[in-house]
Amino acid sequence: MSTSIHDIKQDFSEHTRLDRETYGLFMTPVSKFNIEEFVDPVLKWMKNQDFVEINERAVLCHNVQQVGKTNQILKDMPDLEQQLMECVHFHNNEGLNYASEFRINDVYVEVAHQGAIYAPHEHANCVFSGTFFINYDQEAHSFLKFKRQVQSQMFPVMMLPFKQMTAFNLQEATVPFKKGDVVIYPSNLTHGYESNQTDNRITLTFNVTPA
């Protein structure tokens, strides 16, 4: 006599339990440090510098000036360079953890005036980038904004309304920062800021390469 599968008593209770987990893959490290003790020395250093319009990057930014050929800030302030490098090493050790030594090879001291913008962009031929907020008012100045990086032109597959924002559906984001903070991020992470409300948003941006 044959037995049908319907005749067999089955208990799936142990087999139908689901382990429910959602994974955040490919996280992007962004680090923040406070070095407010360097704000006043940098502002003092800036008084003797020449400021020029950023003509070569006019397609990216508007109403922004930077220190020109007199920009030797890391040579003039070696303690600042040492502090920034300490931030770089911490960021590397806590994030990508490359087995390399690093150096700072580009430094830009910039003043954003009222209405200034910096279009979303990335930095090439470097590993990390950092921004030191020398004069920054959270209520009056534009914040540094990061945009989600995707290779596919089909992201998101569909743009549906969100019930709430999560780490997975964000299209752009930032981290909390204030005057005196340094924010370090991968150089290929798209970043920029929108129309600046008031004058005198002062930052020092630097790029980091393997030594």
Outline the structure in words.
By secondary structure, this protein is of the alpha+beta class. It has a single domain (29-146, 177-210), classed as Jelly Rolls, CATH 2.60.120. It has helices at residues 39-46, 73-76, 78-94, and strands at 31-34, 51-53, 61-67, 102-121, 128-135, 145-147, 172-173, 181-186, 191-193, 201-210. Strands 1, 2, 3, 4, 5, 6, 7, 8, 9 and 10 form a 10-stranded antiparallel beta sheet that branches. The longest helix is centred in the middle third of the chain and has 17 residues, at 78-94. The chain is globular, with a radius of gyration of 24 Å. The mean pLDDT is 90.
Secondary structure layout:
Layout: E1 31-34, H1 39-46, E2 51-53, E3 61-67, H2 73-76, H3 78-94, E4 102-121, E5 128-135, E6 145-147, E7 172-173, E8 181-186, E9 191-193, E10 201-210
